[in-house]
Here is the input.
Amino acid sequence: MIKLENVSKNIKGKTVIDGITQTFHGGITYGLKGINGSGKTMLMRLVSGLIYPTSGRIEIRGKELGKDMSFPDDLGLLIENPAFLDSYTGFDNLWLLATLNNRAGKTEVKEALLRTGLDPEDRRKYKKYSLGMKQRLGIAAAIMEKPQILILDEPLNALDTEGVALFDKIIREEQERGTLIILSCHEEKKLHEYADVILTLENGKIKDREEL
Amino acid sequence: MRLYRLIRYDIKNGISGRSYLYAPAAILCSVFTVSFYMSVQSMNIEDEKFTIVNLFLYFFEGKEPFSPELGNAFVFPVVWLFIFLYSAFLTLNYPYSNLTGFGIQAITRTKSRNLWWLSKCCWVFLATCLYFAVWYIVSLLLSVILHIDLSFQYSERICALLLDMQLQPMQPGSVWMSLVVLPVMISVAVNLLQLCLGLFFDRMYCFIVSAVILFASTYFQTPLLIGNFAMVKRSVIYQENGMDVKQGIIASVLVIILSIGAGIWRIRKYDILKKS
Here is the structure.
């Protein structure tokens, strides 16, 4: 469970998140809706510990983010455009990341690549990947350690029809696993398809909450 | 263990993956070495023993204390400035470009901002050491090729004629400290200070600060500008009131500790944002 209490964030004098109080529960998929600059990505950055609130607090399973922990345990993250090492293959990129915390072995890395429709044996370097393949690799990185919290910012960007179908399947599987998912998506129809709760953001505030 | 993994990741990503950045250093080192060798040859002093220490004295001679009142024109020590500025440039971009790209995946997996910071400090240390190793190895190889004597001795005549230096007698330990240990430590200190400032200011300003410290060091003789400690012409082996090696070590260690400490304090509240 992630609990935001009156969280605000100012960046260079501008309020990007304004007094948000919201609880995110495990096993529920939250869809974030709003125009560009409404605060969706900033909210995800706050929850993932990349930025800390100027005021208010974020609590994850009773521990305060930024005080008791730097980043949430068990986090899978895809934020803005995924970035990987150009001279490595998809598998090598994920394997390098997996060795940092040893929560996924080679089998899990291969499985994550297959789930996103990428070939673990593909020897092409990341720099040769198309935009859609890069996005798939970003999704694979987010899910490979089977995290309890999954934050996906615009996961459908650059995905083709097959990629979207695979992503639909991934979301269903993650929901069955009981993962807390927070995602943003410009395609409202898709957002309604994935989410249990839709939060509409405007000027850094949650303007509307819709349970589906 | 997690720190070890992060350092290993930084070595792979930030050193092996950017090894091309060391090529200009090797090329410039070759150019400077050959240029100095040709200068020595043109002096027609075949009986003098030209050694690798003479070459290192040329690299790290720096600039004698400057007195503007004498009406002298200030000439920047190009070789010395290049060596230290390129070292600062080499370590400028990776840590923060990494944090806005692939590094986000890495830092969220290691779960610790402090570990990320410490691994980047270690990376700066290793990248700087490797950079100087490139200089020393290239000059060593060229010395072998050009038949420059590999010994801890040096020709006083070459120093006097080409470098305008009258040095105090140097023991091998003193040569080692003045021409190897101190330049590397001072460069590590400047680069770590630059890394630390990157948590507060834009990277370009941080490089400008490093450049100002180095340029100002060539102009002013003061222990407050640590570049002074890495110049032979500012040291006690060149002038009576020169900079002491021990003071240089202490000053660089202080800058290193303060930079790491300030970074640990700052990284806890640092916003990891895309540059845009």
Observations:
- The interface with chain B takes residues 11, 45, 48-52, 66, 69-71, 73, 75, 77, 79-80, 83-85, 87, 93, 96-97, 99-101, 141 of chain A (CB under 8 Å).
